[in-house]
Amino acid sequence: MPRFNIPHFNLQDQKLILATVILVLILVFASLTLKPQLDNPQFVAREAPLLKNAKLAISPGESYTYEYTMGNASANLTYVILGGNGCTVIALAEAQGASVCVDKGGNDATMQNASYGVPTIILTRPWMLAVHGGWRWNVSNYMMFGTWGKHLVDTNYTVVREEDYRGRDAYVVRVESSEGNLAMDWVDAEKRILLREAGQGYEIVLTEGLPLN
Hints:
Layout: H1 11-39, E1 42-47, E2 63-70, E3 73-83, E4 88-92, E5 99-102, E6 136-145, E7 148-165, E8 168-177, E9 182-188, E10 194-199, E11 202-208
Antiparallel strand pairs: 1-6, 2-3, 2-11, 3-4, 4-5, 6-7, 7-8, 8-9, 9-10, 10-11
């Protein structure tokens, strides 16, 4: 009869083989269960508690125009306010379909307070209904893969002063991210809309819609 040499493994070798097998099984299991999550990451904003002291003050029939300047280029952005089904619609006239339907608390369907589901809507943002002297707020953004998340950026909002802006009472809000991006927002104290935004290399200024000096 042919004779076979059966390899002999000592205890240390057996432990190493067992550990390798377990690792392979874990990797196979992870590839089957986590792959759908890794293929479909979600961006999540975790906001600090926000107490609003004002309601949405814009009304159907109003319109607001801004001049957006970056370097030597400029463009006008006009927002029209329309009546919606139980909400107020803010629409960007220059872009068909760029609109949001917001409730009295200034929120659209996403219920986020930092911005809307349509980021080109900058006339107002939900957090502007909460500003007051000494106000501070922050938002943390994550990329989520199922239950596992990767932190992306923090954004801090701070009212640095109150001032008269071209005849309007305004809150000046410093908006700074942990990545170093910085913008200053002038928020109208009555209408809670953007009067001016000065960022790194750009500026947005309200030119029509409110009486300004």
